[in-house]
Amino acid sequence: MGTHQDDTGSKIGMWLFLLSEILLFGGLFILYSSYRYKNPIDFHLAAWELNRVLGTLNTLILITSSLTMALSIFFIQKGNRKLSALLLFVTLFLGGLFLGVKSVEWTAKIGHDLYPNSPRLLGRSGGEILFYGLYYSMTGLHGLHVLVGLLVLSVMLVLILKGKINENRFVPLENTGLYWHLVDMIWIFLFPLFYLIT
Amino acid sequence: MEGIFGESVLKDRDERFHKVTYQTYLFVWLGLLVLTGITVSLAGRDWGFLSIGMVLGIAAIKSGLVLSYFMHLKYETGLLFQLMIPIVLAALTLFIGLTFTDIAFR
Fold this sequence. Notes:
Chain A is mainly alpha-helical. Helix content of chain A is 83%, strand content 0%.
């Protein structure tokens, strides 16, 4: 009773947004693949320099944060608000950790004078310049998505603690979860493309 | 009978979610960890084109797991949900295919 609530409509709206995100990153993946196809050796050399350990660590962090996100939704549906809030907090923490690792990684690369337009990078071959351009723009855009995700997750945490999101009204949390899982899924593809295929 | 949005099913929403237990999520998580382990250990090998295919194949399986279980696509009903994703993936495949035929035969 009371206010009208269209759960299916809001979920479909969220999915449409997520699908446009898939096409956005999809375009960048096509750009990456076609440049890689044209400069296989340069991409091989440049990818060799990325820190595979940090990339793997971030993959594990993001996958685990997806688990805690899914569990947070699971427990709000069961009416366990406290556990849901706790799991959401863990998700937030893991997302922050991901960005922390990312910034350590970027700082090291920039410390080695490997950043767009750096003198050291400009002295290298065209393919390597392209690789680092794509590396910074694609992982940067993804990092921006993680940052936005953290902001939305924080709002959701406040709403759960205030009781505005509860066992009867949890679609905003579900939609946030969908977004968070999509960000995880994009990383699932970014990780092998940049760190594993050498 | 249900509409293309699967709206009438929403009444049975709780029933639908009872099918998912938290163990399901834990198993999916374990699966994702194992697949990550496999893909990282494969990465050192130099099998040329095959290793690119395997690494991307594993990424596809992982994203399939995330889509079906974490994002609940396995449990969504309604024609729209069942069509939206394949249409977008088909569009993306078409873009990739056309781009590569352009690059390859230019």
